[in-house]
Amino acid sequence: MEQNRHTGSGDHVLDTPGVGATDQSSIENLPLAGYPILSTTAFVLSKMLKERLAATRKTVLAFANTNLVLKCQAMLPWMDSDEVVLVNDGIGLDIAALLMHGHRYRANLNGTDFVPYFLKNLSAQRKIFLFGGQPGVAEKAAAVIERDYGQDVVGCLNGYSALSPQTLHRQINESGAEIVLVALGNPIQEEWIRSNMHALDAKLFIGVGALFDFLSGAARRAPLWIQKIRCEWLFRLAQEPKRLMRRYTVEAASFLYLCLSTRRTRLLS
């Protein structure tokens, strides 16, 4: 049964199952537009996920950027359930948090950085299935995951496969996968996880966006100095202006409006 975790529009320390009492002060809920987004560090988030894996507890990790907030509103009740862990991704979330709560999130927990960190710091080798991306990209990403992070990639399937859901479920289950990384983009990857996770034996599902492209070399990340000044979005925009211009202009404004209007509605209710 889904349990609602969001109790109000203010920020507060979150009672998160699977996190020890000593870590509770390191996890805070800074909700935006109705989404219960955690403010924490990579270390604490990694510890939480490892504890849930050890307890064989089904968990979804989603990275809330402005795109997810706008496009996944139909999934809000599910994202507010106990099986979903939602963290912040990108400077847009920090700007909104400053406006709504007076302070930023504790760290920028984007999937491109956090997932490799998490895989590298798992205490034991885990079986991982990669689903999504262009043909051939997941296989190249798998080689990097095995070589650099010491994990066991037990299967790959691109995002253009024509397999039926039943066949895909069987293929993932027969692989013995404990973790499934899904790279289909928002909101498709979140919807796929919600619709398929309970037919799968895996315990951790992560929507990873463009991670396979970055790991495989199909896409190039911004130089480290650009990442440090939080302008990676500008680098990506310069690389793909036609695809990303609307996201970083019209949709960014729509995101801020949604956050402000949601807060106003809750204050008035």
Characteristics:
single chain, 269 residues, alpha/beta, Rossmann fold, 6-stranded parallel beta sheet, 13 helices, 46% helix, globular
Strand arrangement, major sheet = 5-4-9-8-6-7
- For the secondary structure, the number of strands is 9
Helix fraction, binned, reads 40-55%
> Strand fraction band?
5-15%
- Please identify the structural class as seen in this structure: alpha/beta
Q: Outline, from the CA principal axes?
A: globular
Radius of gyration equals 18 Å
Sheet having the most strands: 6 strands, parallel
Domains (count): 2
Are there runs of 5+ residues with pLDDT below 50, and where? 6-22
Count of helix runs = 13
Describe this structure in words.
With 269 residues, the chain is α/β, with parallel strands linked by helices. The protein folds into two domains: 8-109 and 234-263, no CATH class; 125-219, AF0625-like (Rossmann fold). Helices cover 46% and strands 14% of the residues. The protein has 13 helices and nine strands. It has helices at 42-54, 66-71, 76-79, 91-101, 111-120, 137-149, 165-175, 188-196, 211-216, 224-228, 232-239, 241-248, 250-268, and strands at 12-13, 28-29, 38-39, 59-64, 84-88, 127-132, 152-157, 179-183, 204-207. The strands form two sheets. The chain has a six-stranded parallel beta sheet with strand order 5-4-9-8-6-7, sandwiched between helices. Strand 2 and strand 3 form a beta hairpin. The longest helix is centred in the C-terminal third of the chain and has 19 residues, at 250-268.
